[in-house]
Structures are given as C-alpha cells and as structure tokens.
C-alpha cells in the first residue's frame, strides 16, 4: 500500500501479547533470540508455536529443542496461494496467538491470514523503510550508495514491507562492506530490536492509528 492509498479512516489497534507464534523459513536466528528471551518472566510473553513454510530447516530444530510445538505448511502442497494462505491461517490459529512474528519468513501472507490476524502480525526487514522494501533490501541499499542502513520492525499489511513502522535501528555502511558483511551486521542489530519490540508489545501493548504505530496502550478519550 502506497502513501496515497491510505484507508478512509484510521485503524486503531491495541494489543498485549502473551502468546507468540513465530513464522520461519530458514536458520531461525531471530527465533533463537526470542526463545532466549521468553524464559525470563519479565519478558512478558512466550513462544507457543512455530510455523514454517518448508520442512527440514534449522529453525524447526531450534523450536523442537526448546519444546515448542511446530507445524509445516508448504506452498507446493496446495493448488493455489489462496488455499495455502487459508491453511497457514488455520495452522497458526491452532496456537491462539496474541501476536504473530514473521521472523525471516519468506512468503507474503494473504487476505485470509490478515482477516484473522491483521493488526497483530509484525515483520522485520533489513533496511530503513520505507526505503528499499522487498527481498533485496541490503543489496539495493548498497547499490544506491547509502552511508547508513539498518533494520525495521513493521506491522504487516497487504503490501510488501509497507506497513506502519514500530521500531527502527540504524547501522552504518562501512567503506569495504559488501552485501554479506553489511547484512550480517544488520542481523545482529535486528535480533536485539525484535526482542525489544516484542517484549514491549507484550508488556505495554501496540496501538496503530493510520500510518502511525505506537508502543503502549491507546490514550483514553477526553
């Protein structure tokens, strides 16, 4: 969704998050950071389920080692993307999540998923949005010649990395950086930012008003 395609009226969403479901596609470094945090009662939330779009990935092993139930919903097992999206929605719904965290999840969720969980799905992106959305944010930032990159945590909407921004952290681009070296440094910052944002949502809630996302409960009217 672009800046000139805003909803007719602001969306107001306030959530606290005790039950987390994490969507994964790969090694699970962000999942590992959340699992490390969730044993601390002060964090305020626990990972209760992990759902992957493919089997035999390290993220699933991390979840199982932590005693967290898992599910796999492969796109190739369904006749079309809409059917996959409905199945993904049901798989996540089994865990009754308060918040869904897309942590390195390499698929876009669809209408069925957002109809059920919209306003309580967050995602990370390795760039300072709204600049450099999409699958190659690090590469695109380097190609553009930026001096500062970073990472963002957003509320997922119908677009590609277009949702309201919840948190961001900057990462300087070094003169000898390539895509791999910059991405690795961004990932370190991204993990810390994600854990911080999820913990703050768990303890204080998340309010979304139009393009603006604010950690903490909505202010009382009047």
TrEMBL record:
One GO cellular component, as annotated: cytosol
Keywords: Purine biosynthesis, Transferase
PROSITE patterns found in the cross-reference section: GART
Keyword Translocase included in the entry's annotation: no
NCBIfam families associated with the record: PurN
InterPro entries given in the database record: Formyl_transf_N, Formyl_transf_N_sf, GART, GART_AS
Domain Formyl transferase N-terminal: 19-198
Active site, UniProt feature: 125
Top-level division of the source organism's lineage: Bacteria
Residues that bind N(1)-(5-phospho-beta-D-ribosyl)glycinamide: 28-30
Pathway terms, separated by semicolons: Purine metabolism; IMP biosynthesis via de novo pathway; N(2)-formyl-N(1)-(5-phospho-D-ribosyl)glycinamide from N(1)-(5-phospho-D-ribosyl)glycinamide (10-formyl THF route): step 1/1
Protein name: Phosphoribosylglycinamide formyltransferase
Record: residues binding (6R)-10-formyltetrahydrofolate: 81, 106-109, 123
Record keyword Transferase present: yes
GO annotation, biological process: 'de novo' IMP biosynthetic process
EC number(s) per entry: 2.1.2.2
Catalysis performed (reactions): N(1)-(5-phospho-beta-D-ribosyl)glycinamide + (6R)-10-formyltetrahydrofolate = N(2)-formyl-N(1)-(5-phospho-beta-D-ribosyl)glycinamide + (6S)-5,6,7,8-tetrahydrofolate + H(+)
Site (Raises pKa of active site His): 161
Family: Belongs to the GART family.
Pfam families membership: Formyl_trans_N
Known function: Catalyzes the transfer of a formyl group from 10-formyltetrahydrofolate to 5-phospho-ribosyl-glycinamide (GAR), producing 5-phospho-ribosyl-N-formylglycinamide (FGAR) and tetrahydrofolate.
GO terms for MF: phosphoribosylglycinamide formyltransferase activity
Signal peptide feature range: none
Phylogenetic classification of the source organism: Bacteria, Bacillati, Actinomycetota, Actinomycetes, Micrococcales
């Amino acid at each position: 969704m672009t800046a000139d395609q805003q909803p007719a009226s602001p969306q107001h969403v306030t959530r606290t998050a005790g039950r987390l479901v994490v969507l994964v596609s790969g090694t699970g470094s962000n999942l590992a950071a959340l699992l490390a945090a969730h044993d601390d009662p002060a964090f305020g939330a626990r990972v209760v389920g992990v759902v992957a779009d493919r089997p035999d990935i390290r993220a699933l092993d991390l979840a199982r080692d932590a005693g967290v139930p898992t599910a796999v919903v492969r796109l190739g097992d369904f006749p079309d993307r809409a059917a996959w999206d409905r199945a993904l929605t049901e798989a996540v719904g089994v865990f009754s999540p308060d918040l869904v965290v897309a942590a390195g999840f390499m698929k876009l969720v669809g209408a069925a998923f957002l109809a059920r969980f919209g306003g309580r799905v967050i995602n990370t992106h390795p760039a300072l949005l709204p600049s450099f959305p999409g699958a190659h944010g690090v590469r695109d930032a380097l190609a553009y010649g930026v001096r500062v990159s970073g990472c963002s945590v957003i509320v997922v909407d119908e677009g590609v990395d277009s949702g309201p921004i919840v948190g961001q952290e900057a990462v300087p681009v070094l003169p000898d950086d390539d895509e791999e070296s910059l991405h690795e440094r961004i990932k370190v910052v991204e993990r810390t930012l994600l854990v911080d944002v999820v913990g703050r949502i768990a303890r204080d809630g998340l309010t979304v008003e139009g393009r603006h996302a604010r950690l903490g409960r909505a202010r009382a009217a009047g």
